Amino acid sequence: xxxxxxxxxxxPAALGPLTYELxxxxxxxxxxxxxxxxxRRGESEGIVIGPAMSVPEDIIDKLRPVSxxxxxxxxxxxxxxxxxLILWTARYYMSPEGAVLKYAIPAGVWKGVKRRSKKGCETVxxxxxxxxxxxxQAAALSAMNAxxxxxxxxxGVTGSGKTEIYLRAVENLPEGKGAIVLxxxxxxxxxxxxxxxxxxxxxxxxxxxxxxxxxxxxxWRRARSGEARVVLGVRSAxxxxxxxxxxxxxxxxxxxxxxxxxxxxxxxxxxxxxRGRNQKAKVILGSATPSMESFYNALKGKYxxxxxxxxxxxxxxxxxxxxxxxxxxxxxxxxxxxxxxAISDTMAERQQALFLISRRGxxxxxxxxxxGHLRKCALCNVxxxxxxxxxxxxCHHCGGDFFPAVCPKCGGLKTAYVGEGTERAEEELAALFPxxxxxxxxxxxxxxKDSHRRIIRSMESGQTRVLxxxxxxxxxxxxxxxxxxxxxxxxxxxxxxxxxxxxRGYHLFSQLAGRAGRGNLPGRVLIQTRDxxxxxxxxxxxxxxxxFFRRELEYRRETGFPPFRRLARIVxxxxxxxxxxxxxxxVRQICKDFRYSGARVFGPSPCxxxxxxxxxxxxxxxxxxxxxxxxxxxxxxxxKFSAVGGIEAEVDIDPVDxx
Length: 659
Fold this sequence. Notes:
Blueprint: E1 5-10, E2 18-22, E3 34-39, E4 42-51, E5 68-69, H1 80-92, H2 97-104, H3 107-110, H4 135-145, E6 150-156, H5 162-171, E7 178-182, H6 190-200, E8 204-207, H7 213-225, E9 230-233, E10 245-251, H8 268-278, E11 282-287, H9 292-299, E12 304-308, E13 319-324, H10 337-348, E14 352-357, E15 365-368, E16 385-387, E17 392-394, E18 401-402, E19 415-418, H11 422-432, E20 438-441, H12 451-461, E21 466-469, E22 482-489, H13 501-513, E23 524-529, H14 535-541, H15 545-559, E24 566-574, H16 577-593, E25 599-612, E26 615-624, H17 627-641, E27 648-653
Parallel strand pairs: 6-11, 6-12, 7-9, 7-10, 8-9, 10-11, 13-23, 14-21, 14-22, 20-21, 22-23
Antiparallel strand pairs: 1-2, 1-4, 3-4, 3-5, 15-19, 16-17, 17-18, 24-26, 24-27, 25-26
Helix pairs in contact: 1-2, 1-8, 4-5, 13-14
């Protein structure tokens, strides 16, 4: 009698593996091969994980057979290394394996969408000149070339030439090896794409969510076949199917955008490290302001630390000065006399300036002058932002759009617009300095395709002389004409109820300062703040990353936050307030009674954003010194919460946001 064969198959859905029987005569599939299997009343394509380890006797005769084998077992659809990464990701982030598979493989690949190939089948190499390396660059590259694998933390100050190191590292790969280059946001990295395109021609593939299904599928297939030698993309590019991966680069590794906020809450930077280890590839984590966790790992010897403390051609770091907005004269609600004078001088010298303001819109709060009522979003319970140009009140969380009608509380018609947004700052600067050639870069002005790149090219050409915007203006732009950078209001980020608030503030203001003085002329930075005594600014002004790191590390040690403890956040949500309140009462008791050796539970308590998109939100934190203990404790808690009606519970391992 022929022995029956059973295989576990993963489908691109929020499910775990399903077991199917392999019919007699069908060739045994290798892990990673596609098969068609029956699902409910239809069929679906899935990926074979491997033979089923055990099948309960009571269901063995209920298992359905595989319908078709879709790949040559010698050439599986998904390389074993990528399948391993998918399964590891599911375990670590406590997500169904099928949900990770669905995220990792573009929809166009499953649907068989075809993409027209690039013109010509041959690889066209770029012809860009290679600049002479500085001493720091040459030493950094030499250290990387001396190793066959491992993780390197490239800590180079802004303007030290990290991008050239990335380019040379890819060029130095052995024949047949591929590279993945991760960038925080594709729309903000037009300059780095241009540099890679000039160097690698059409051996480069760009991969991001803005592409069509067919374009993403085509890029995926070129990576699988080896036709694409290097792919530059956002976080999802970490899942591209390079079988012979030699290098993964994570530019601006500190960026919070590497963390997926919704659905599968993974961190692409951390997966890059895991993937490099699994495939014995090199991993370069680059930043002028490394994350606390990465710098700690480097000091502990887990990563190799490479420093580039000087700018190209020994250009000086910009001088940074704080402007105390409580004491300084103001020429407009947002602009101090000192900042206005600096702008005037910069324009007189035919130089360029760049300014950061943390909020978009005209005013982040709208208040009735008759009764003091603050206009809030009914779904999110957060203040609505006034967008003057659009003539709308908008919620920046759910996207709700409202007309500024009479006060819903008293019917009053007098409205006060409180606080500064990018629209208001633009209006004030335009009134103070008419016809200077100003552009605004925020979500409202960059919704169209290539709008970011057009704004940056206008700065590069000199047509735009002043660039104002949200945090996106501080990220990675190389604009040699900028000699003045400034923060219109630096205080918004500092008061956030998040243990990473100071770290994020240091990243932001240091990156902002890094935009100034990258050319032949020295730069200066002016930061307007109502809290100049905040210890953060001491280190920002001195360009002292290591001093900030040491001080912040002591705070983390005392409070038991990463890198000293592993952290998980469980967010509880519900739509019906009465049921949700009752559920929270049960959750409180569960947490009070919960005991697990080596783990501690804090909460539950209301989230800082207690209501979003119509959902009531509470959260709790689980801390442990060990990852395995953390996962076990969270798993037990989630099992208990699943029996509580009226709530949904969602896990975030290694959270980067506490709001």
